[in-house]
Amino acid sequence: MTAVDQKQLQEFKQQAEAWFAENTPREVDFMLPLTFMEVGTDQQFEFLRAWQNKVYEAGYLGAHWPKEFGGGGLDRAFQDVATKAMAAERTPIMLNAIGLNWTGPLLLDRGSEEEKKKYIKGILSAEEIWCQGFSEPDHGSDLGNAQTRAVREGDEYVINGSKIWTTQGNYADYMILLARTNPQAESKYKGLSFFLSPMKGQGIETVPIRKLTGEYGFTQTFFDNARIPASCLMGQEGEGWLIAMQTLEYERGARSGQAGGHVMMSADPADILELARHAQINGKPAIEDPAIREELVALMTEARALGLNSRRDKIQPLAQDRPMSLALGSKLASTDFYQRLNAFAIAMQGTRAAYYVGDPQAHDNGVWQRGYLNSFSATIGGGTSQIQRNIIGEHVLGLPKG
Amino acid sequence: MSALINAGLTPSIGLSEEQAQLIDIAQNFCRDKSPIDQVRKLLDDDTGFDPAVWREIAELGWLGIGVPEEFGGIGLGLGELVPIVEQMGRHLMALPFVSTIVAAQAILHAGTSQQQQKYLPALASGTAASLALCEENADWDLENISCTASQTDQGLVLSGRKFLVTDAHQAELFIVSVRYDDKPALVIVPRAALAEGAMSREKIIDDTRRSYALDLNGVCVDADSLMEQAKAAETLAYIELASSLLLAAEMVGGAYNVIDYTLDYLKTRKQFGKLIGSYQSLKHTMVDAHMGYERARSHLYSAAYLFDQQGEGEVAVRMAKAEANEAFSFAADRAIQFHGGFGFTYDCDAQLYRRRAIWCSALHGDARYHRRKLADLML
């Protein structure tokens, strides 16, 4: 890689900032999803698909991905400044999260030329939406035990089984699918294979799951003798676990190569301060209530600790007493924090705490009420907070297993 | 997600090469000099610390780290001392270290050049000092002072009583807050100026420490013992922040070791045929204590990094003190509980940490006090 031309980068940055300032949609008359897991209506889906496409066409998504496959061919520093400009404007999210963040980098790192040519551009332009088929109804956290079957018959695989928590499953064109090709393999892991499976076809059915918010965003996906081309197999049979683990590293941010842009937005302390200024409790602005002020400061202190923890983790002498502590603790710390932040935001609204999305009386159109309910996706998904405490207790503190 | 948090606030943290080295040196030193047997032996000792250890610390140059070179020190910022005090806190050491450091910084801030010449080289090389700030009003506001000083023909005459003067028995000089011309002022009082019986030992909750009440009535010092009065208020504010930073360091250190101490027990003690650390009610609570410790430690090193910056430094220090108070208190409170019947005895070390957590929170503000200050700064 050649050294980055700073002048060129600076110009790109200014262009990106100006572009997002001008093109970010401001007046949207329906609620936009705050995360890629909350796309529940066709209106939301079409809006976000068009927005991602616009950002891509302007050159601010996948700017560092190879040009020959549809990327911008620039250094990663260029995409980083574009991503920052996007976050600063608080633009709507990038829709095709599974494609941009997991499938894309996976294909670029270990896919064949043919696969890259076939899929990368559609991921960036949002013309082809991706979903993930790892979890199964009976095997939530225990991925290695996946039971969905893939049986080779001539030029095809026949798929049978079911996947759950398929984000955007009803909209997806493709799925990264973990399925069992060899039930007799010497270990459960070696019997798994990884597929780039089409989602539109006979024998594939998605059933939307209605979330606690009353909205949609996930599906359960059923394969009933679905036939997919044998060329959908990624790598070799038996490499499924390996490839799935690599995919999870992109998901957890342990590997880089993502296309850029944000796929989630969450409230930050500035938002809750704004709420405290205009919400009334006991006849006064919440921000004048001493107990609320103290709690606000406690939450801002905690928010700052999240950022400080991840920075401290990179300063070796300050992170060596209990190795892995800060890394393994970050999911628990941040997801619990956001849940409490949203709950507290509701609690400072007086009687208006009772309103929900869609009522003119609701503060910030009910974003806090809805955010609180949605926050459970993070304290339950990806290993519940209780499992996280077991992991930290056992792997960081060395306590015995129960 | 984190991008947005960082956009709102710009938390900073860093470590100098000196600090990185000090962590290792201080860790070994404190572990060697203050094993728990030694801590317990000193509980009944009048002095409360080993003078030989104090001399070694002076020889290591730690007392001069924050003192400028012209006065025989090294001239680094106060944040550089955080790793040392943190390690002292881990091993429950009780030296006049923090009081001497803060006294020197006060003289550096508001002392006349004559006072600086006279006292700083001594404080940088092993003369102990203390601060007499607290009064009967129990107020954390250091400007709430009723002791007085007035000029007479004999010199500056003081009146009133001070409390919670740590290590007064070892201090060669005291920084005393008074009202002078009805405004806050700071006076340097040499030990020799105190009358016989002016110091009386206090019964305090932290058995590792020594603290005294100071009777100022009748104390008369040279007229030039007054520090620059125009800087008194600002220096009192500085003393609060400097003390808070170092108390936070001590508490973060204490939290680490009390968690460690409790983990050892949970990994060896069996009940109902199982190691008690395998029960989730204990395991999960230990994780919460540990996460609180990690938060506090991040804030501590951020405060050490930002200490010298106007505004940002104050926010960072108050956050660190508040978080350290809570993390240490929670960890030590649960440590007593999780040791069961043994936890209720004087022989269990958990009580030493818990008592110390109360002491450290009582000085220079508990979590609520600092959050109220932060609310005024941030909201």
Written account of the structure:
The complex is a heterodimer of chains A (402) and B (379). With 402 residues, chain A is of the alpha+beta class. Chain A is 42% helix and 15% strand. Chain A is built from 11 helices and 10 strands. In chain A, a hairpin with an 8-residue loop joins β6 (204-209) and β7 (218-229). In chain A, α4 (97-110) packs across α6 and α9 (325-347) runs antiparallel to α10. Chain B is an alpha+beta fold and 379 residues long. Chain B folds into 3 domains: 7-124, Orthogonal Bundle (Butyryl-Coa Dehydrogenase, subunit A, domain 1), CATH 1.10.540; 129-232, Butyryl-CoA Dehydrogenase, subunit A, domain 2 (Beta Barrel); 234-378, Up-down Bundle (Butyryl-CoA Dehydrogenase, subunit A, domain 3), CATH 1.20.140. Chain B contains 13 helices and 11 strands. In chain B, α8 (232-266) runs antiparallel to α12 (350-362) and α10 packs antiparallel against α12. Chain B is globular. The two termini of chain B are 23 Å apart. The chains are: A alpha+beta (402), B alpha+beta (379). The interface between A and B is large, with 58 and 52 residues.
